[in-house]
Amino acid sequence: MPTKHERIIRYIEQLDIGHKISVRQIAREMEVSEGTAYRAIKEAQNQGLVSTVERVGTVRIEKKNRSEIERLTYAEVVNIVDGHVLGGIAGLHKTLNRFVIGAMKLDDMIKYVEPDSLLIVGNRDQAHRISLERGAAVLITGGFDATDEVKEVADRMELPVISCSYDTFTVAAMINRAIYDRLIKKEILLVEDMLSPDQPPIYLRLDDRVSNFHASVRDTGHSRYPVVDEAGKLHGMVTAKDVVGHEWNDRIEKVMTRHPITVTPKTSLAAAAHEMVWEGIELLPVVNQQHHLLGVISRQDVIKSLQYMQKQPQVGETINDLVFRGFEEVREKNGEIAYKGVVTPQMTDPLGNLSTGVLTSLMTEAAFRRLRRQHRGDMVADHFHLYTLKPVQLEREIVLVPRLIDLGRKVGKVDLEVFDSGQMVAKGVITAQLIER
């Protein structure tokens, strides 16, 4: 039987796109407390089913596929620019394909305005009206209002007119930043990307017998299964090792391993892979907030997915990429590989010295690059011992020298030294968990 939380999520999924909901309304219609309704709505927001806009409320939106994650809804634009909606609230759930900056004559501007786009412009009433009539929403910069005629057209066309206090350049930069952040997020594979709703997980129940385990092994060829109760809540895992020496009539509840390690759909695949390698686990159950079983992922499937992502074109840069961008690989006189670069203003702390966080990122990236020369796979930092000997000032050229100490099948260890004008300024040792591709 589904829980109250799950019933509310299903109810929200069945609502029409654009439908407004509230905590009080959900609580009344589903006959639950307002606290339960609030928590369910927040979960629906995390799942991409609804979006909350200040002074408007919570709106049912269409859940986007990972392939469309970089596309924004008008509701998301409102939140990004700290704006408020002047009209066309019914269209907040719609997705924009592009935005146009209206910094030209009206006749030239209109050539670029297309349906499902967003015109970013100041207080130009005629441009507002024509844009809406052409199927594009409007974002008015500078905190200006819209005319009653424009608001009426916006309501009729169900296209939002948004006002915000920022200037046009700042607004465009904010939206670009939001799209760019999503591109980076899109590259990070999550556990939910591997789960197929068409393939429900194979499991055993608490009151099943060891004979049921052996029958499942014959039917599926698998040797480990999650164990759930009648409501689908996970209670344990049972493997071939667990049933050895037990009678065929013994209950699964008696032989299973309780409190297994689990992941959620929002766990990154890299984190799941690290957990599997570290704990020696071949199969991880995937559960929701109520600990109900959603599926399982195997170590083999995780590694295949990470391999696939390594072959995809990169469309965004992480903080580590940006920090290491100015460093070049050089070869020392003794033949060792090193990385040389200059400390930029963005890398410094308030005192003008190289930030400890940036130094850690630089050393980790240098260590990983050294490991990748002999290990064609992914890796996750496990232990990092850092000793800072001397502060490094702005615009100083530093050299990072990583030396491989040990490389096994599952673990690699690198010694790192950082030099400024020939003087050692930091030293560290990094241990990384290695994941085969």
UniProtKB/TrEMBL annotation:
The keyword ATP-binding does not apply. It holds the Pfam family DRTGG. CDD domains: CBS_pair_DRTGG_assoc. InterPro entries: CBS_dom, CBS_dom_sf, Diverse_CBS-Domain, DRTGG, HotDog_dom_sf, Ser_kin/Pase_Hpr-like_N_sf, Thioestr_dom, WH-like_DNA-bd_sf. SUPFAM superfamilies: CBS-domain pair (SSF54631), HprK N-terminal domain-like (SSF75138), Thioesterase/thiol ester dehydrase-isomerase (SSF54637), Winged helix' DNA-binding domain (SSF46785). Residues 195-254, 256-312 form the CBS domain. Gene3D superfamilies: CBS-domain, Hotdog Thioesterase, HprK N-terminal domain-like, Winged helix-like DNA-binding domain superfamily/Winged helix DNA-binding domain. It comes from the Bacteria. Keywords: CBS domain. This is Transcriptional regulator.
